[in-house]
Amino acid sequence: MTEAVNTRSDGQTSGLASVGAVLRTRLFELTVLVWSLPFGVVILTYFQVRRVPAEVRWALRLWSSGFVWAARTICGVHYMLDGLDRVPDGPVVFVSNHQSYWESIAFTALFADINVITKSEAMDIPIFGWGLREAPMIPVFREQKGRNLRRIVKECRESLASGRSILLFPEGTRVKPGQTKPFLRGLGLLYASTNATIIPVVNNAGHCWTEGFQVKKPGHIIMRFCEPIVPGRDPAETATRLERTLNREKELLPGGSFC
Protein backbone atom coordinates (compact mmCIF):
# COMPACT_ATOMS: atom_id res chain seq x y z
CA MET A 1 0.00 0.00 0.00
CA THR A 2 2.84 2.39 0.91
CA GLU A 3 4.53 1.75 -2.45
CA ALA A 4 1.29 2.52 -4.28
CA VAL A 5 0.96 5.84 -2.42
CA ASN A 6 4.56 6.74 -3.21
CA THR A 7 4.04 5.89 -6.87
CA ARG A 8 1.02 8.18 -7.06
CA SER A 9 2.95 10.89 -5.24
CA ASP A 10 5.88 10.59 -7.64
CA GLY A 11 3.53 10.70 -10.58
CA GLN A 12 1.84 13.84 -9.25
CA THR A 13 5.21 15.50 -8.68
CA SER A 14 6.34 14.61 -12.20
CA GLY A 15 3.08 15.89 -13.63
CA LEU A 16 3.37 19.18 -11.75
CA ALA A 17 6.95 19.57 -12.95
CA SER A 18 5.82 19.02 -16.53
CA VAL A 19 3.05 21.58 -16.18
CA GLY A 20 5.54 24.00 -14.65
CA ALA A 21 7.95 23.52 -17.57
CA VAL A 22 5.16 24.21 -20.07
CA LEU A 23 4.12 27.37 -18.23
CA ARG A 24 7.71 28.61 -18.00
CA THR A 25 8.21 28.00 -21.73
CA ARG A 26 5.04 29.91 -22.62
CA LEU A 27 6.04 32.75 -20.30
CA PHE A 28 9.47 32.84 -21.91
CA GLU A 29 7.91 33.09 -25.38
CA LEU A 30 5.66 35.91 -24.24
CA THR A 31 8.62 37.72 -22.66
CA VAL A 32 10.69 37.45 -25.84
CA LEU A 33 7.73 38.72 -27.87
CA VAL A 34 7.33 41.78 -25.64
CA TRP A 35 11.13 42.32 -25.62
CA SER A 36 11.16 42.16 -29.42
CA LEU A 37 8.45 44.78 -30.00
CA PRO A 38 10.59 47.91 -29.45
CA PHE A 39 13.33 46.44 -31.64
CA GLY A 40 10.77 45.83 -34.37
CA VAL A 41 9.69 49.46 -34.15
CA VAL A 42 13.31 50.64 -34.39
CA ILE A 43 13.96 48.41 -37.41
CA LEU A 44 10.83 49.61 -39.21
CA THR A 45 11.47 53.29 -38.46
CA TYR A 46 14.96 54.44 -37.45
CA PHE A 47 16.88 51.77 -39.39
CA GLN A 48 14.91 52.59 -42.52
CA VAL A 49 16.34 56.10 -42.44
CA ARG A 50 19.76 55.45 -40.94
CA ARG A 51 21.27 52.04 -41.64
CA VAL A 52 24.62 52.00 -39.89
CA PRO A 53 25.81 48.36 -39.60
CA ALA A 54 27.62 48.98 -36.30
CA GLU A 55 24.39 50.30 -34.77
CA VAL A 56 22.43 47.34 -36.11
CA ARG A 57 24.95 44.94 -34.60
CA TRP A 58 24.74 46.76 -31.25
CA ALA A 59 20.93 46.43 -31.28
CA LEU A 60 21.14 42.78 -32.34
CA ARG A 61 23.55 42.03 -29.51
CA LEU A 62 21.28 43.76 -27.01
CA TRP A 63 18.26 41.76 -28.22
CA SER A 64 20.26 38.51 -28.08
CA SER A 65 21.44 39.28 -24.55
CA GLY A 66 17.81 39.71 -23.49
CA PHE A 67 16.92 36.38 -25.09
CA VAL A 68 19.71 34.54 -23.24
CA TRP A 69 18.77 36.28 -19.98
CA ALA A 70 15.11 35.26 -20.34
CA ALA A 71 16.10 31.67 -21.15
CA ARG A 72 18.17 31.52 -17.97
CA THR A 73 15.79 33.39 -15.67
CA ILE A 74 12.48 31.92 -16.84
CA CYS A 75 13.30 28.52 -18.33
CA GLY A 76 16.24 27.71 -16.08
CA VAL A 77 18.59 27.23 -19.05
CA HIS A 78 21.98 28.32 -17.72
CA TYR A 79 25.25 28.20 -19.61
CA MET A 80 28.95 27.87 -18.88
CA LEU A 81 31.88 28.93 -21.07
CA ASP A 82 34.76 26.47 -20.85
CA GLY A 83 38.14 27.39 -22.33
CA LEU A 84 37.26 30.99 -23.21
CA ASP A 85 40.85 31.91 -22.36
CA ARG A 86 41.89 30.01 -25.49
CA VAL A 87 40.30 32.67 -27.70
CA PRO A 88 43.02 35.18 -28.69
CA ASP A 89 42.54 38.89 -29.15
CA GLY A 90 41.56 39.94 -32.64
CA PRO A 91 39.24 38.37 -35.22
CA VAL A 92 39.08 34.56 -35.49
CA VAL A 93 36.95 31.93 -37.19
CA PHE A 94 34.70 30.06 -34.76
CA VAL A 95 33.74 26.62 -36.11
CA SER A 96 30.95 25.12 -34.02
CA ASN A 97 28.58 22.18 -33.96
CA HIS A 98 24.92 23.15 -34.31
CA GLN A 99 22.20 21.60 -32.13
CA SER A 100 19.68 24.41 -31.68
CA TYR A 101 19.04 28.06 -32.37
CA TRP A 102 20.08 28.90 -28.80
CA GLU A 103 23.81 28.84 -29.65
CA SER A 104 23.26 30.97 -32.76
CA ILE A 105 21.74 33.70 -30.62
CA ALA A 106 24.19 33.19 -27.74
CA PHE A 107 27.19 33.78 -30.01
CA THR A 108 25.80 37.16 -31.12
CA ALA A 109 25.31 38.07 -27.45
CA LEU A 110 28.75 36.92 -26.32
CA PHE A 111 30.93 38.32 -29.10
CA ALA A 112 30.64 41.86 -30.39
CA ASP A 113 30.46 42.31 -34.17
CA ILE A 114 30.55 38.59 -34.94
CA ASN A 115 29.68 37.71 -38.53
CA VAL A 116 27.53 34.57 -38.82
CA ILE A 117 27.47 32.45 -41.98
CA THR A 118 23.78 31.58 -42.10
CA LYS A 119 21.05 30.37 -44.40
CA SER A 120 19.45 33.22 -46.29
CA GLU A 121 16.03 32.04 -45.02
CA ALA A 122 17.10 32.93 -41.46
CA MET A 123 17.23 36.56 -42.49
CA ASP A 124 13.47 36.51 -43.04
CA ILE A 125 12.78 35.73 -39.36
CA PRO A 126 11.10 38.77 -37.75
CA ILE A 127 13.40 40.97 -35.63
CA PHE A 128 16.40 38.64 -35.24
CA GLY A 129 16.52 37.79 -38.94
CA TRP A 130 16.15 41.42 -39.96
CA GLY A 131 19.07 42.21 -37.71
CA LEU A 132 21.11 39.48 -39.39
CA ARG A 133 20.42 41.01 -42.80
CA GLU A 134 21.31 44.56 -41.86
CA ALA A 135 24.31 43.70 -39.63
CA PRO A 136 25.20 42.40 -42.25
CA MET A 137 25.87 38.67 -41.88
CA ILE A 138 27.02 36.30 -44.63
CA PRO A 139 24.08 34.53 -46.32
CA VAL A 140 24.13 31.08 -47.89
CA PHE A 141 21.78 30.82 -50.87
CA ARG A 142 20.60 27.27 -51.50
CA GLU A 143 20.02 27.95 -55.20
CA GLN A 144 23.60 29.16 -55.75
CA LYS A 145 25.57 26.09 -54.73
CA GLY A 146 28.34 26.65 -57.27
CA ARG A 147 28.87 30.33 -56.44
CA ASN A 148 28.29 30.31 -52.69
CA LEU A 149 31.75 29.15 -51.69
CA ARG A 150 33.70 31.73 -53.69
CA ARG A 151 31.53 34.58 -52.43
CA ILE A 152 31.60 33.34 -48.82
CA VAL A 153 35.40 33.11 -48.82
CA LYS A 154 35.63 36.63 -50.24
CA GLU A 155 33.22 38.05 -47.66
CA CYS A 156 34.98 36.21 -44.83
CA ARG A 157 38.30 37.75 -45.82
CA GLU A 158 36.73 41.21 -45.90
CA SER A 159 35.05 40.65 -42.54
CA LEU A 160 38.24 39.49 -40.83
CA ALA A 161 40.17 42.40 -42.33
CA SER A 162 37.62 44.78 -40.82
CA GLY A 163 38.05 43.19 -37.37
CA ARG A 164 34.89 41.03 -37.32
CA SER A 165 35.16 37.37 -36.29
CA ILE A 166 33.34 34.67 -38.26
CA LEU A 167 30.96 31.99 -36.98
CA LEU A 168 30.54 28.88 -39.13
CA PHE A 169 28.35 25.83 -38.53
CA PRO A 170 30.02 23.30 -40.89
CA GLU A 171 27.27 20.69 -40.48
CA GLY A 172 25.05 23.05 -42.45
CA THR A 173 21.97 22.36 -40.33
CA ARG A 174 20.97 21.43 -36.80
CA VAL A 175 22.14 17.98 -35.72
CA LYS A 176 20.47 16.37 -32.73
CA PRO A 177 22.53 15.21 -29.72
CA GLY A 178 24.11 11.83 -30.32
CA GLN A 179 24.05 12.22 -34.11
CA THR A 180 26.66 13.35 -36.62
CA LYS A 181 26.53 14.76 -40.12
CA PRO A 182 29.37 15.10 -42.64
CA PHE A 183 30.78 18.60 -42.79
CA LEU A 184 30.06 20.73 -45.83
CA ARG A 185 32.86 21.11 -48.35
CA GLY A 186 34.99 24.22 -48.42
CA LEU A 187 36.26 24.32 -44.83
CA GLY A 188 39.84 23.69 -45.94
CA LEU A 189 39.61 26.39 -48.61
CA LEU A 190 38.22 28.88 -46.10
CA TYR A 191 41.07 28.10 -43.70
CA ALA A 192 43.72 28.48 -46.38
CA SER A 193 42.22 31.63 -47.91
CA THR A 194 41.59 33.64 -44.74
CA ASN A 195 44.89 32.92 -42.99
CA ALA A 196 43.00 33.20 -39.71
CA THR A 197 43.12 31.27 -36.45
CA ILE A 198 40.29 28.75 -36.12
CA ILE A 199 38.64 28.14 -32.76
CA PRO A 200 36.71 24.83 -32.63
CA VAL A 201 33.66 25.16 -30.36
CA VAL A 202 31.32 22.43 -29.11
CA ASN A 203 28.08 22.76 -27.19
CA ASN A 204 25.32 20.52 -25.85
CA ALA A 205 22.48 23.04 -26.23
CA GLY A 206 20.21 20.49 -27.88
CA HIS A 207 19.66 18.71 -24.56
CA CYS A 208 17.87 21.78 -23.17
CA TRP A 209 16.78 23.79 -26.17
CA THR A 210 14.26 21.84 -28.21
CA GLU A 211 12.98 22.95 -31.60
CA GLY A 212 10.18 25.40 -32.24
CA PHE A 213 7.56 25.77 -29.52
CA GLN A 214 8.44 22.55 -27.72
CA VAL A 215 8.97 22.74 -23.97
CA LYS A 216 12.44 23.94 -22.96
CA LYS A 217 14.19 21.84 -20.33
CA PRO A 218 16.03 23.42 -17.38
CA GLY A 219 19.72 22.57 -17.29
CA HIS A 220 23.24 23.76 -17.99
CA ILE A 221 24.52 24.29 -21.52
CA ILE A 222 28.27 24.03 -21.89
CA MET A 223 30.10 25.87 -24.67
CA ARG A 224 33.64 24.51 -24.84
CA PHE A 225 36.30 26.42 -26.76
CA CYS A 226 38.90 23.90 -27.90
CA GLU A 227 42.57 24.33 -28.77
CA PRO A 228 43.07 26.95 -31.52
CA ILE A 229 44.28 25.92 -34.96
CA VAL A 230 46.77 28.50 -36.16
CA PRO A 231 47.30 29.42 -39.83
CA GLY A 232 49.82 27.68 -42.06
CA ARG A 233 48.84 24.04 -41.77
CA ASP A 234 47.70 21.71 -44.52
CA PRO A 235 44.11 22.73 -45.44
CA ALA A 236 42.76 19.24 -46.17
CA GLU A 237 44.34 17.81 -43.02
CA THR A 238 42.98 20.73 -40.99
CA ALA A 239 39.44 20.20 -42.27
CA THR A 240 39.62 16.51 -41.36
CA ARG A 241 41.04 17.30 -37.94
CA LEU A 242 38.29 19.84 -37.28
CA GLU A 243 35.54 17.36 -38.10
CA ARG A 244 37.05 14.72 -35.85
CA THR A 245 37.62 17.20 -33.03
CA LEU A 246 34.08 18.56 -33.03
CA ASN A 247 32.45 15.12 -33.26
CA ARG A 248 34.63 13.78 -30.46
CA GLU A 249 34.48 16.77 -28.12
CA LYS A 250 30.73 17.28 -28.32
CA GLU A 251 30.20 13.68 -27.20
CA LEU A 252 32.40 14.30 -24.16
CA LEU A 253 30.05 16.99 -22.89
CA PRO A 254 27.33 16.09 -20.35
CA GLY A 255 24.63 14.19 -22.16
CA GLY A 256 27.05 12.92 -24.81
CA SER A 257 27.52 9.23 -25.43
CA PHE A 258 31.11 9.27 -24.08
CA CYS A 259 30.59 11.25 -20.88
Q: Would you give an account of this structure?
A:
- The structure is a single chain.
- By secondary structure, the chain is α/β, with parallel strands linked by helices.
- It is built from 8 helices and 7 strands; from the N terminus they run αααββαβαβαβαββα.
- A 7-stranded mixed beta sheet has the order 1-7-6-2-5-3-4, sandwiched between helices.
- Strand 3, helix 5 and strand 4 (138-140) form a beta-alpha-beta unit.
- Helix 1 packs antiparallel against helix 3.
- The longest helix has 43 residues, at 2-44.
- The two termini are 39 Å apart.
- The relative contact order is 0.15.
| Secondary-structure class | alpha/beta
Biggest sheet statistics: 7 strands, mixed
> Roughly what is the average pLDDT, rounded to an integer?
89
Tell me the helix content. 40-55%
Strand order of the largest sheet: 1-7-6-2-5-3-4
How large a portion of the residues is in β-strands, by DSSP E? 5-15%
Number of distinct beta strands: 7
